[in-house]
Write a structure and sequence with these properties.
The complex is a heterotetramer of chains A (412), B (353), C (180) and D (188).
Chain B: H1 2-13, H2 17-30, H3 35-56, H4 74-83, H5 95-110, H6 131-139, H7 142-152, H8 156-187, H9 192-197, H10 204-207, H11 209-222, H12 234-237, H13 247-271, H14 284-309, H15 319-346
Helix pairs in contact in B: 1-2, 3-4, 3-13, 3-14, 4-13, 5-7, 5-13, 7-8, 8-11, 8-15, 11-13, 11-15, 13-14
Chain C: H1 4-29, E1 34-40, E2 45-50, H2 55-65, E3 69-78, E4 83-91, E5 101-109, E6 114-116, H3 126-136, E7 139-141
Chain D: H1 2-8, H2 11-23, H3 26-37, H4 51-57, E1 80-84, E2 87-88, H5 89-101, E3 107-111, H6 113-117, E4 127-128, E5 138-140, H7 147-164, H8 167-187
Parallel strand pairs in D: 1-3, 3-5
Antiparallel strand pairs in D: 2-4
Classes of the chains: A mainly alpha (412), B mainly alpha (353), C alpha/beta (180), D mainly alpha (188).
Amino acid sequence: MVASSIAIEEISKELIQTRDLGVTEEGERLVELQIGPTHPGSGHMRIRVWVDGDIIVRCDPDIGFVFRTIEKLSENRIYMKTIPLVERPSLLDTTPMTIGYINALEKLMGIEPPPRAKYLRTILAELTRIASHLYGIGILAIFLGHSTGFMWGFGDRELFVELANQLSGARITYAYVVPGGVRRDMPQSFPDNVEKALRYMERRLKDWYKIFLNNPVIEDRLREVGVLRKNDAVKLGITGPNLRASGVDFDVRVADPYEAYDELDFMVPVAEEGDAYARTLVRFEEIKQSINIIRDALKKMPSGDIIHPQIARMFNPLMKKIYEETRRVKFPGIFASLKPPKGEATARVEAGRGEALFHIVSDGSPRPYRFRWTTPSYRNVILFKYMIPGHRLADLPAIYGSLDYFPPEADR
Amino acid sequence: MMLPLVMLLKEILGFNDTIYRTVVGLGYMIIYPGLLLVVVIAALMLWAERKIVALVQLRYGPLWVSRRIGGALQGFADLIRFSFQEVIIPRRSDVIPFLLSPGLAILFSMLPIAFIPISPSIHPPLYSDLALLVVIAIISLAPIFIVIMGWASDNKFAFVGSLREALLIVSYEIPLIISIISMAVIYGSLDFYEIVERQYMLPGMILNPFAFIASFIAVLRTTSRFPFEISEAETEIVAGPYTEYSGLMFGLSMGLAYIKLYVYTLILSLVFLGGWLPLQGGEGFLLGFLAPSLVVIIKLSLLSLVAVFLRAIYGRYRLDQAIRLGWIYVLGLSIVSLIWSLALVYGGWVRWR
Amino acid sequence: MASQQPQASQQRLALGKALEELATRLSEHLKGVATKVEADKRSMVINIEVDRSRILEAAKILSSLGFDHVKSLTGVDYPDKGVIELMVHIGSYSRGLRRIMAILRSKLDRKDPRAPTLTQIWPSSEFQEREAWEMFGIVFEGHPDLRRLLLPEEFEGLWPGRKDFEIPTRKAGEAEEPWK
Amino acid sequence: MEGGLVFIGDLDLTTRKVLKWLMERKPIKDIVEWANAFSLWPVHLMTSCCGVELGAAYAPRFDLERYGSLPFVSPRQTNLIIIEGTLTRKMARVARITWEQMVDPKFVIAMGACAIDGGLFWNSYNVVRANEVIPVDIYIPGCPPRPEALARAILMLQQRIKSRGITRHDLELIEKNLKLEKVEFARK
């Protein structure tokens, strides 16, 4: 191990003397690698690393390749049209994000959705959470060269995408959550389909353990790589499964319950090791917990309205008819000029990758005066700078994958 | 196909040994089992790899290119596309080594075919009774050109890739050579004919399983199969030494791994799987040459299929882990295999006439 | 289910009371530092307003009380008042405080917005300060590495987060508000 | 040296002409078009969030690999760019460089409403249109387009290669592209 790096160093030393291979600084023989946006191991970002031999000395994440100025754009959009804007950056788990935005809006408006709507929101959020975790595990697998993990992750994800499709009518951009409730009720066959899918997923998880988690190569690649201690995780403000894998049992669903989470039965998986393997394990455990949540929510699902009565009162007769016959909400035109009262509201949700924070400043006009949104990936970027140095070059994709970092979500 | 033609030539020209040997040798190297077969097998192996892996991953894999035969032409389509693409030579590259090294690497990995017999009746063009050693010596030269490729293209990723390749050659070539030598100890010969003959009762794989496992792992590494696809690990260093290669040049470099896989599995199937046995070889073209050689090719294809199938199961090791594995376990295994062979020979369990 | 509704509202009442208590206690700790400490029961947030020169002091006290990370750090531009409000959402992973958040607010001069960096107290604010600088031009004094985070390096012009940076919009009544 | 040209001619030009002549003969042209149609390897350039649906399109349920399309690593070895959604200013430069690095028969699919006209982000100050950066062959509408739509785009591109051929089409592209380059240079 040591011998190899020394050998690389010695070879590279001679080469650098004869030929310019990169940045050489005072006394340091560093080679700068730009793991740029076209690189198969980078996603939508550029990671500049300086390597000394095989060891990474410095790492500078260069984000902003998907920066679409959503905070600025929303200042020019009416409140309803900001919902799709909020969905786009984190296309993997859109529902938690819309829930967060709508929660902040509802706090401003001072309304609260009926219980059935809360349960429906929770179910969709958990479906997307499973899908998002499977996506993250798939990306981790392909970063480690394990193509079967990638394909299985994306293949199993389709199941939950399809379920969400049945519930909301779209594959990934649902816009299902609206102020005061949800857009439509669940179809009658939905609980059965969900049960089938959940049973399949439970069987499938055993295969996952066999081929991925207990695979000797994967274990070697992930164990004791990218260790994040509890103190550092708290200090750097890390969030989501990455935080919980370091031994902090913080989960917004428990700490600050929103929607129906305080009435449902689930646990928050926590691991103590803080390495890449623990992060992956926590994600798998969260999939299991999400399965429990969905089952529990379907069991406890209350009957009743799916939209706040105050909004239902504004329906014209045709809308009322549609709502009563097909349980779909058509929005009255008045919503286009929805004007929440002056004030500020903050909401936070636990998205697939961690805590997302929404802050709306309203000046009483139909557009938000200022909309601030921090996403979990945005808060986790800092890990690239502080965690990666000291590891080997080959560990970079392993750590990146285990962080489940999604650049569009970070850039917004 | 070749043999009647050769007979005809023989009659026309009178018995001219030199011409006869030249024609047969060229046919051997260029058509069967040389270049043409290698290209066909490499293209089919490319397809088979994608197809098998797709089966594990609940997909179809390549299909629409030729739907009746399950997309088997996919490898050819890719190769043709590569060979008619533009070739970019980066301005900062060392042009001559950049252009020459893929060809030389392929040359040195193809050359061993000239020493390897695939049937009892037709001799390879260069017959030697030390063939096993010569073959291993020649094919060990090929990775050097991979290192040159990475160096000549003046790309940092290619450079890192070629350094990885260099480190891995050192740590896996030695176990391979030791385990092959341990087989030579058992057979008491370096001549492929004798090696195959002496497996008439038990294939070498059972005589010395340690050597088989050690050399198979080393072959996996040398041909960059998973879990040792480290020197061209795509998520770390793009395509390793081949990063700057495009068009036909990349086609050659991509084919290189499959050509090496062909040659190595050819050697392994002769040394460990009993070559053309159970066929003993007989009279005429069909029984003497074609049938035994087909047996060898089936055996080597099975071995390569196992090698490419591992892509569906494993990820890739880190460089230092692979090196540690090579120096501790694989080298240890090959030394055990050598001791095992010596014990078999000196204990008197294996005795040749 | 209907029975749970009043239960939840009772819970919320109790929480609101706890929040107010916490706010009063915080104001005792921050006496002389903060100009205003008030609880926002709707969002479960404590608003803390401090003067520009006392930001660091307030941050030190808050971090010693257990607020250990920054959730969001940004500015809000008020051109008519001539200020940019620095808005820092801080939270805690400790068991007692995780239910609430605090917002540290400070009004900066819009012409030359300067604030001391919080990276020494909360390292988690490093990248967020870079973004706030890039968007609003708030200079964080003492920041180790204040450069662009999201925009291309050669981006020129106004600070894009501010209100006077205008992006093209459709005229009202053209397409976006057809009901008017 | 000037005299040499009289006898030898411009060797480079002659070879190119011969090659071009050869490439337009019937069997070779057909084979090359067939091979290109069934070997559209997209480069790993993730421009935006439609990459999620791109991943789904190459995964088990939709499996675009059955059309011979395999996502591959570096621009030198691939012949297809799929612009997945929004191109920000930072990413546009990368897309352009990637396009220039790629070898010649190359194709571009622009995926999503953002790549066509900005989509939801039509008035963002950091977003550019895909056709301002690189010449696009096929557009896919949708936000994000379903994987089936991507499959259809690949099939359409195959049809187009088979019916229209590749060589002539690409020479046009290069000329168009040269103009673009001059404009960009002038702007700098």
